[in-house]
Amino acid sequence: MIGAMNTTLPKPFRRLAVIGAGAWGTALAITAGRSAQAEAVLLWAHEPEVVASINGQRANDLFLPRIQIPPLVRATNDLAEAASAAEALLIAVPAQYVRKVTTVLSRHLPAAAPVVICAKGIELETGNLMSEVLGEVCPQASLAVLSGPTFAAEVAAGKPTAVTLACADPKLGAVLVATLGAPTFRPYLSADVIGTEIGGAVKNVLAIACGIVEGRQLGDNARAALMTRGLREMMRFGAALGGQPETLMGLSGLGDLALTCNNAQSRNMSLGIELGKGKSLAEALAGKRAVVEGVASAAAVLKRARSLKVEMPIVAAVDGILHHGADISRTIAALLERPFKSEG
């Protein structure tokens, strides 16, 4: 007699904390708060007015307007409360603030609580990936990374979305998928944490480049070429750090690149459009509450790439425009005058 197959499903986490109440963190909290399996979702916000608005009006109009927040989601500005009450934490603050915030969290983090990195970027000061930052700050925590093609407003509105959830521990990964997965929010499990992070960080820089192409009205051919050559840069960088090429051809690489480089809803692409039209970086950033991750990531990715002797000419061009006063027209001309070579 053939033994019965074990069909026991992983038991999901029921008490979650989302750290960071920008658009993306709020969207993740809303998604978790709609789950029939969740008991409580605590959303940490830096701004007291955001905490008051979420708890009082069930809205976060500062970062994610016109979206109703489920009753299960409660906001707080107390990091200790957020950490100590959760079975699992999702880190959704901007990448350059991850070290500062998680240093405080580490003092209150339950020993068994996994940390899911939802920030996309590389630390400017050190050149570290977010998993490397967490490994230093919270060495006791089990880590996972969630990344992919996601506009926060669409996730919050319940529109179909697929993401990569990367975790070295397949059992923990399965539990996190069971916790966060829903018919319209579909996590695909991967063991490649590094590759998943690389896609999320580099695509923001490439989106600024694509925005500049759009702002200069250089055409769809140019944007398609830039995306494709940018993907090659991303894959070289990922390979040097140990990421898998199939990861970068998946949701967290090519998928996120396609979304971010083709729609002005992307903060990074819209910034690039303004730069391409002639605005300075300060003018293009004026009045923006949300962080444009690609600005810091351009310098951070280039710094890490150079330490690995990986050539990334598009990333270098964006960094030159953003941080070193490079003229856009001359930068574009220099890219177009590079020697012809094989496509690989």
Kindly summarize this structure in a few lines.
The protein is of the alpha/beta class.
Q: How would you describe the overall organization of this protein?
A:
The chain is an alpha/beta fold and 344 residues long. It has 2 domains: 15-191, NAD(P)-binding Rossmann-like Domain (Rossmann fold, 3-Layer(aba) Sandwich); 195-336, N-(1-d-carboxylethyl)-l-norvaline Dehydrogenase, domain 2. The chain is built from 16 helices and 8 strands. The chain has an 8-stranded mixed sheet with strand order 3-2-1-4-5-6-7-8, sandwiched between helices. Helix 7 links the parallel strand 7 and strand 8. Helix 4 runs parallel beside helix 5 (130-137) and helix 14 (293-307) crosses helix 15 (313-323). It is globular, with a radius of gyration of 20 Å. The relative contact order is 0.11. Residues 1-6 have low confidence and may be disordered.
Topology, pairings included?
Layout: E1 15-19, H1 23-33, E2 40-44, H2 48-57, E3 73-76, H3 79-84, E4 88-91, H4 98-106, E5 115-117, H5 130-137, E6 143-147, H6 152-156, E7 161-167, H7 170-180, E8 185-190, H8 193-215, H9 220-241, H10 245-248, H11 251-260, H12 267-276, H13 281-285, H14 293-307, H15 313-323, H16 328-336
Parallel strand pairs: 1-2, 1-4, 2-3, 4-5, 5-6, 7-8
Antiparallel strand pairs: 6-7
Helix pairs in contact: 4-5, 8-9, 8-11, 8-12, 8-14, 8-15, 14-15, 15-16
Q: What key phrases describe this protein's structure?
A:
alpha/beta; eight-stranded mixed beta sheet; 16 helices; 11% strand; disordered N terminus
